Structure to design on (268 residues):
């Protein structure tokens, strides 16, 4: 999991970026709508208000990221779930959530962020949730992906999952990474096409899922490109923002929402 910094998530609790409105313009769906589709559900299939969630702050490793637990709590509340941050941290917080009878426990350390369903003893990982959510967002923004070329930038955990999801959506998937053997490994494993020249790959594609930290130079971006970009940090210059038809991004919310809804789905 990319380690977030407090400044990246500063506006999440109060939804200062007005993510639902932005997503509706670009994809036709809200965060909740994307999360439901990512989990294979439709509105009405599940009553999210029935789920109680405990968000456990974790102090191990580099410690708690200021504002992280409050941000996760706010995201889950916007889905309609009954959420709270536990008073205890780490194992104590986990035990507190279990004793309180919550249905989902959400917690993250330096390496993993999971949503754990206490009813079924199953969890959803953030890498899976982020890749699925941003793949669904790209599909909706593009009006479907069947037979269309899609470039995945980054062959790490999120990029690897995205390659699989996009291929399942019918896309002709290309993948690139600054460490080319990582992209080549995905070509060998999933039958997608690995591209070695990252800049050239970017300039030759208009449907892009970016799963890597990146600075996007406008001169390398094709006119009318749609970016679904969970990778942080990233930066688009003025020319790039003018050329792009859509840039779908948030620091935390889409992946977290997909995690929560998918883990709730395990109880159906």
């Amino acid at each position: 999991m990319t380690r977030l910094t407090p400044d990246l998530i500063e506006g999440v609790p109060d939804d200062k970026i007005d993510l639902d409105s932005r997503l509706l313009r670009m994809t036709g769906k809200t965060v909740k709508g994307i999360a439901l589709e990512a989990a294979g559900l439709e509105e009405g299939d599940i009553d999210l208000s029935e789920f109680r969630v405990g968000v456990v702050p974790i102090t191990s490793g580099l410690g708690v990221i200021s504002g992280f637990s409050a941000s996760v709590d706010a995201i889950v509340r916007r889905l309609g779930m009954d959420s709270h941050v536990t008073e205890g941290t780490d194992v104590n917080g986990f035990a507190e959530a279990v004793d309180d009878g919550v249905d989902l426990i959400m917690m993250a350390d330096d390496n993993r962020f999971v949503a754990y369903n206490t009813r079924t003893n199953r969890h959803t990982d953030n890498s899976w949730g982020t890749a699925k959510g941003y793949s669904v967002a790209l599909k909706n923004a593009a009006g479907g992906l069947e037979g269309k070329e899609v470039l995945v930038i980054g062959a790490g955990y999120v990029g690897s999952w995205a390659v699989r999801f996009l291929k399942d959506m019918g896309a002709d998937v290309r993948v690139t990474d600054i460490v080319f053997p990582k992209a080549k490994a995905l070509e060998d494993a999933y039958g997608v096409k690995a591209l070695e020249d990252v800049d050239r790959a970017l300039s030759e594609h208009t449907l892009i899922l970016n799963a890597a930290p990146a600075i996007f130079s406008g001169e390398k971006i094709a006119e009318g490109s749609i970016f679904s970009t969970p990778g942080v940090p990233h930066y688009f210059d003025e020319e790039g923002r003018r050329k792009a038809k859509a840039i779908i991004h948030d620091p935390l919310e889409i992946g977290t929402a997909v995690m929560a809804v998918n883990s709730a789905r395990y109880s159906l």
Residues 164 and 190 are 7 Å apart (CA to CA). DSSP finds ten helices and 13 strands in the chain. The two ends are 28 Å apart (CA to CA).
